[in-house]
Structure to design on (251 residues):
């Protein structure tokens, strides 16, 4: 029995899960996935007339939302620092502008989101009308950040496709220098990885954009669509973060 217990507790997957959970960003990705899954399940149960069971999932969604707001305290400063780093670096102008715009938009979104948490925790007292305006402003910043991210992804994808084409066209025929070939293969692999990462983030943005757009009333979709979109984008982010933290180990 002790051997079986030790095999379970000391299993590499358990160790990797603990390592994943030890990072704040890892826990946030997990909580976000459960939060939007709960939103989808609550909608599904309500649509089937099971309001009592749906209330449990709605409560879980709400509490995870509050927990995530607490975990993001101080996050606005990180986005402000990221914007300053991009501004002081060199690169394609279009990509720089959209990247800075994204970081500043998320700075605004999370700053207003912090105010909403403080109001929910009764640390500050916002009038209902003020709280509603703060919520709308927060969602506008969130939507702007995603739009900047989508634009940045399109610009970057175009540049990387052009670079990949140039690299293919630079291939020499006939006798080849082995060192040049090795360098070309390394650059080609790096470009392919960058293009894959860009596509991955672009797909996440296409799912995420429905959330603030729905909150602002710009699109007429139900909680099921919003919950499903958020769940899929969260799963994609969760998987990417797992691989990053555990050095690409999938198990």
């Amino acid at each position: 029995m002790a051997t079986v217990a030790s095999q379970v507790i000391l299993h590499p997957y358990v160790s990797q899960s603990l390592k994943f959970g030890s990072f704040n960003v890892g826990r946030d990705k997990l909580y976000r996935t459960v939060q939007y899954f709960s939103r989808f399940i609550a909608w599904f149960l309500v649509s089937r007339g099971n309001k009592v069971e749906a209330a449990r999932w709605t409560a879980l969604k709400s509490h995870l939302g509050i927990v995530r707001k607490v975990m993001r305290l101080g996050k606005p400063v990180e986005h402000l620092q990221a914007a300053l780093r991009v501004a002081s670096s060199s690169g394609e102008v279009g990509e720089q502008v959209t990247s800075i715009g994204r970081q500043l938009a998320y700075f605004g979104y999370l700053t207003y989101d912090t105010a909403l948490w403080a109001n929910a925790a009764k640390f500050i007292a916002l009038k209902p009308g003020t709280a509603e305006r703060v919520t709308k402003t927060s969602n506008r910043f969130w939507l702007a950040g995603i739009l900047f991210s989508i634009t940045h992804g399109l610009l970057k994808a175009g540049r990387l496709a052009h670079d990949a084409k140039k690299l293919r066209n630079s291939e020499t025929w006939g006798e080849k220098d082995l060192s040049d070939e090795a360098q070309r293969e390394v650059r080609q692999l790096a470009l392919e990885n960058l293009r894959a990462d860009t596509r991955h983030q672009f797909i996440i943005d296409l799912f995420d954009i429905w959330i603030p757009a729905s909150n602002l009333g710009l699109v007429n979709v139900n909680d099921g669509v919003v919950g499903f979109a958020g769940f899929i984008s969260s799963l994609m982010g969760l998987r990417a973060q797992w691989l990053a933290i555990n050095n690409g180990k999938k198990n």
Notes: The chain has a mean pLDDT of 91. Residues 128-169 form the longest helix (42 residues). The two ends are 25 Å apart (CA to CA). The chain has ten helices and no strands.
